[in-house]
C-alpha cells in the first residue's frame, strides 16, 4: 500500500461489519482445528485491538475491495475470484480492528489438501503486499497468521523485509518499456551472443511467414495441450495436468472486468507453433503463460518474446511482466525484481512442494 494510504490510520474503510459476529464459522473439523491456533492468539490481544476471521465470500469481496490498492492485476477482485471459482477453497480473511475500526486485512484461504493457509487465489498471486492503513499493524498481521501459513511473492522494502524476518523468494522479471520505440532498443543492451540468438531465431521464424491470430478464446484448450506436451518433452509436468488450473484460466477469461485477456496464436503452414496468454492491466502487459511447439519450430519462444515486447510498446504499456521464476532463461535477458516470503510452522520440504 502506498505511503498516502499508510498514513490514513484514522480513515479506515467504511464497512458494514459487526465485530460481534462469530470469529470463526466453519463446518469441517479439520478446518476448525486449523483456526484454533489463530484464535488462541486473539484471546491475548489488548483491549483496543480485535480480530475477526471472515469466511463468507460476499463479505470477503467487500473487505477486499476496500483494502486492495488495485495496483496490479493480482490485486483485483475479479482476477482472484477466478481462482476461487476454480479451486473452491475456504476463504479466511483476517481483519484487524482498532477501536472498532478495520485497519488491516490478511486475505487468505485454506488449502485443505495441503493443510495450509495461503493467499486467497493461491501461490500464483505475485507482488502481494500487506494491506494495512499504517505499517505498525504489519507485525500484528503476521503474528495473527495461523500455524501452517505460507505467503509467497511478497513485494516490500528490503529493509522492512529484514525487520519482519521475511525470506528471499524467487524473483520476478520485468522489462521497462518507457522511452522505447521497438524491441531493438532492448536487444542492443544485451550481450552479443544473447542478442545474436534472439535476432537469429526471430528472423528464422519470420521467414516462415507466421500467421498471428488474436483473441480466439477457444484456443485456450489447445494451449493446455501444447503446455502439457512441451513439459513432457523435458521430462516435467505442466501445471495444466491439474483440471482446477485449467478451470482457473477459463475463469480468468470469464471474470475479466478490470483487466483484459489477450491470447496470441501463431500458426505456420496451418500448424500451431505457439499460443500465448497475457493479462493487460493499467500500464502493465503481463506475459503470463505459453505453449510452444518447439520440436516443430525451434526458436519459436524467442520469436514470441520479441513479438510481445514490440506489441506491448506499440500498445503504449510502460512495462512487460514475465512473472516469477526464471526457468533458466529469464535472468539472462531481463531485470529481476526481488520478492519475499513468510512462513509459519512449515518444513523446508513442504515449502518446496
TrEMBL record:
TM stretches of this protein: none
InterPro entries in alphabetical order: Acyl_CoA_acyltransferase, BioF2-like_GNAT_dom
Top-level taxon in the UniProt lineage: Bacteria
Name of protein: BioF2-like acetyltransferase domain-containing protein
Annotated ranges, domain BioF2-like acetyltransferase: 192-331
Organism annotation: Candidatus Beckwithbacteria bacterium CG10_big_fil_rev_8_21_14_0_10_34_10
Amino acid at each position: 500500500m502506498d505511503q498516502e494510504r499508510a498514513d490514513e490510520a484514522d480513515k479506515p474503510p467504511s464497512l458494514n461489519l459487526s465485530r460481534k459476529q462469530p470469529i470463526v464459522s466453519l463446518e469441517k473439523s479439520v478446518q476448525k482445528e486449523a483456526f484454533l491456533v489463530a484464535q488462541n492468539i486473539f484471546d491475548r490481544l489488548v483491549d483496543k485491538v480485535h480480530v475477526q476471521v471472515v469466511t463468507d465470500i460476499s463479505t470477503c469481496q467487500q473487505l477486499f475491495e476496500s483494502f486492495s490498492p488495485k495496483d496490479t492485476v493480482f490485486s483485483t477482485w475479479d482476477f482472484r475470484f477466478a481462482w476461487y471459482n476454480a479451486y473452491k477453497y475456504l476463504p479466511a480473511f483476517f481483519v484487524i480492528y482498532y477501536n472498532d475500526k478495520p485497519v488491516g486485512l490478511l486475505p487468505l484461504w485454506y488449502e485443505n489438501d495441503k493443510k495450509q493457509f495461503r493467499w486467497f487465489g493461491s501461490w500464483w498471486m505475485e507482488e502481494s503486499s500487506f494491506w494495512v492503513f499504517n505499517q505498525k499493524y504489519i507485525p500484528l498481521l503476521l503474528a495473527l497468521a495461523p500455524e501452517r501459513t505460507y505467503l509467497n511473492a511478497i513485494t516490500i522494502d528490503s529493509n522492512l523485509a529484514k525487520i519482519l524476518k521475511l525470506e528471499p523468494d524467487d524473483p520476478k522479471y520485468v522489462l521497462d518499456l518507457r522511452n522505447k520505440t521497438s524491441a531493438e532498443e532492448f536487444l542492443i543492451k544485451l550481450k552479443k551472443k544473447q542478442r545474436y540468438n534472439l535476432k537469429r531465431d526471430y528472423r528464422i521464424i519470420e521467414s516462415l511467414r507466421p500467421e498471428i491470430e488474436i483473441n480466439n478464446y477457444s484456443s485456450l484448450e489447445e494451449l493446455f495441450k501444447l503446455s502439457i506436451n512441451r513439459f513432457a518433452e523435458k521430462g516435467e509436468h505442466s501445471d495444466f495436468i491439474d483440471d482446477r488450473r485449467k478451470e482457473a484460466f477459463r475463469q480468468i477469461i470469464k471474470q475479466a472486468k478490470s483487466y483484459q485477456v489477450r491470447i496470441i496464436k501463431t500458426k505456420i503452414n496451418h500448424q500451431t507453433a505457439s499460443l500465448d496468454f497475457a493479462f493487460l492491466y493499467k500500464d502493465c502487459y503481463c506475459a503470463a503463460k505459453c505453449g510452444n511447439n518447439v520440436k516443430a519450430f525451434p526458436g519459436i519462444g524467442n520469436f514470441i518474446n520479441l513479438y510481445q515486447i514490440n506489441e506491448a510498446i506499440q500498445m503504449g504499456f510502460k512495462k512487460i511482466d514475465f512473472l516469477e521464476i526464471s526457468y533458466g532463461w529469464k535472468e539472462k535477458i531481463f531485470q529481476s525484481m526481488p520478492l519475499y516470503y513468510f512462513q509459519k510452522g512449515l518444513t523446508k520440504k513442504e515449502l518446496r512442494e
